[in-house]
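Data availability (excerpt). All sequences and predicted token strings are deposited with the supplementary files. A representative entry, diguanylate cyclase, is shown inline so that the format can be inspected without opening the archive.
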Amino acid sequence: MSIQLDLTTATRCQNFDSAQGYITLQDHRVIDVDQNIAKIFGYDTREALLNNVDFVYSLIPKHYRGSVRERYLSAIKGKLQNGKIYTDVPVKGNFLSLFSLAQCIMVNNRPALRVMLIDITSVIAAERRHKEKDQMYRALLNSSKQGVLVHRNFKPLMVNQAWVEMLGAKSIEEVLAMDSIISIIPPDNRTNAMRRCQSILAGDTPSFSSVVENQCFDGSKKHFNIYDNIINWEGEKAIQVVVEDVSDKVILEQELMHRALHDDLTQVFNRSAIYDWLKKPLKEQTEMSCLLLDIDDFKKINDQFGHSVGDDVIRTLANTIKKHVKALNGVVGRWGGEEFIVFFPKKQTTHATALDTADSQARVVGERICEEFRTHQFLGFNRTKFQSSVSIGITDSCILRTSNSLNTLIRVTDDALYRAKSNGKNRVSVNHEGACVECCS
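Structure token line:
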């Protein structure tokens, strides 16, 4: 989204208030609007506008239609680099002045335009009265509900109050006194930010926004949707950045993603997420170890102490597994009610370690989990103490070549778990050498 404006007097019009909204166009047709757009064009609801307006050209006077068509085609091709003011647009007996700013997006895998329209009728009237065009432009930005910053090489030149409030600064003056705003960009993103700035100044204006995380002045971290573009500021090129605070949306998306991938009780991966994680080892034909773990006599725990205590036992085993698998670049998942599964790549090293003994790496990990879990003290009713145990089946290593080899790895590991249960529980059972040959074939 781009705009080229001379903004020399905006700070004198900070009290300007405007209606603004968004309209989406595809193939010159209006395919969506918000309620504000409907009100701007004299409709009670957005549905009423959509039902009565097909082509966008019916919303504007005839003498603008040619230029609007040209701007539409340029914007779709990503060549439009400035906003446009349309004055004296007749709407229900009134004449409006509108400021238009277009952003190219994809709708149903086809290019479309998302156009921001701001009702600047009062600004144009003030300009005509006072012939102070610069005042109009600064008023437009300073009254925007979106945060706006203009900088040159990250030295702030202009900032509006909305930006100050979003970023937790004390005042406009505090921001303008800074030598550089690069400090609010996380260190890992600063190189990319500088490259993006240089690219924009070179004329390669992005046709899309990006979501970034910034360190705010008050120490908090927020996610912002940013639109940055080149403008002319007092005769020289500068970067205008328009920001929207999307922190709540990002946090919600992260929470929903986490819930979709993790088991609610233990916060380890669910079965579906485990299979997604295994796609990379399958693609790369990685040599993997597998553990299946099942709490012994778990039904008795539930029957004797109740499901709340049973849940605590399950969580404790999950945390014990995560503790011992954390450093192995592996994954832990809840496979069933009281059953867990672990995958991690076979360790490749030229130095002897505690895991490079006659016992396999996977066996050492399994025995450590088994030992720590059986010594844990649980509390039942009336603070009755009890202990639990876990049986573990292990396949030390198997090269994952196909989904069939993965299924075989899980099956032979389940066989090892069955042997651990049959041999008295509270123990580790490892597949004999060559037990996973079928997986690797």
